[in-house]
Amino acid sequence: MFYALLVSVILYLIVFSLLEKNV
After folding, report:
1. 3-19, pLDDT tens digit by residue?
2. C-alpha to C-alpha distance for 19 and 17, rounded to whole angstroms
């Protein structure tokens, strides 16, 4: 279950960085 939380956080950071690059 811990890995699911870890992966979700990593995906969130990736999406956030991609959105930052688009702006």
Report:
1. 999 999 999 999 999 99
2. 5
